Amino acid sequence: MNTKVDLERVATRQRSDDPGGTIVQSVDRALAILEIIAAAGGVETLNNISAKSGLNISTCHHLIGTLTRRNFTVRAEGRGTYALGPQIQMLASAYNSEQDLLRRAEPWIDRINETTGETVHLATMQGDDMVTLVKRDARHAVRVDSGMIGKSASAHATATGKALLAWMTEGDVRRILDAKGMKAFTPQTLTDSEALFAELETIRATGFSTDREEFQPHVVCIGAAILGPGGKAIGSISASTPIMRANEEHLSLMRHEVMAAAEALSSREGVAK
């Protein structure tokens, strides 16, 4: 193999695949190494990794050294042989858990949407970020625009977010607030951390969270946490309605449906509520 030629071919391919120059070469190469080890059944030699990646031995060794320090790879039996590490299992477990939550929550999302006619969200925390996994639009002609799928720094201002924060440690919540801030989305948004902590205590006591025009004007939302083993929130589910429909009867229905879904999903994770 002509390594120099192979590296030039790899570089040319990367430039053509990334005309905007957004790919970080070292990250791209490290991920390619993990893919090569995985394709080999989870264990591969340094020589084979070098040959398959088109990278020289020294570059592969340095990259694998970094991956090993972060537990993405480990030394295996045999000289110059490496295996996928425990950090890969952690990532796979988190992914599988999220996919399982999505699968199990689907019929409950449908039920809330059908029974209340309102917009339904399913969210989780990924690190310090609240991430909306599902948004099911309301069945009414007049519906709310209550946020999009993806990451948001609005955990302190939404029913889904507050339901998640309520079951975290105070230290974790303070870390998230320090990192993300407490942006005032509307005049009703809580921007004082102590006031938020008082509300989180109420949420734990009642089992549900409420957002009354805190994230968007004229929108009321009710949420509840989905708890896993140890009482940790693995997700939250919520329903949102325009304030024009937010009478006590309708809010009571939304609260009942959301809490029923959260309880059913939590009980399957081995948590008695």
Written description of the protein model:
The structure is a single chain. The chain contains 9 helices and 9 strands. By secondary structure, the chain is of the alpha+beta class. It has 2 domains: 3-84, Orthogonal Bundle (Arc Repressor Mutant, subunit A); 93-267, 2-Layer Sandwich (Beta-Lactamase). The strands form 2 sheets. The protein has a 6-stranded antiparallel sheet with strand order 6-5-4-9-8-7, sandwiched between helices. It has a 3-stranded antiparallel sheet with strand order 1-3-2. Helix 2 packs across helix 4 (57-69), helix 3 (46-53) packs across helix 4 and helix 5 runs antiparallel to helix 9 (248-267). The model is unreliable at 1-9 and 269-273 (pLDDT under 50).
- Largest sheet features: 6 strands, antiparallel
Number of helices: 9
Following the backbone from N to C, one meets helices and strands in this order, namely HHEHHEEHEEEHHHEEEH
Distance between the termini: 62 Å
Architecture per CATH nomenclature, i.e. the level-2 architecture of the largest domain: 2-Layer Sandwich
Can you tell me the CATH class of the largest domain?
Answer: Alpha Beta
Question: Number of domains in the coordinates?
Answer: 2
Q: In what range is the share of β-strand residues?
A: 15-25%
Low-confidence stretches: 1-9, 269-273
Estimate the helix proportion, in percent. 40-55%
Net shape:
elongated
The CATH topology name of the largest domain reads Beta-Lactamase
Quantity of strands, as a count: 9
The CATH homology group name of the largest domain: GAF domain
**Rg estimate, integer Å:** 24 Å
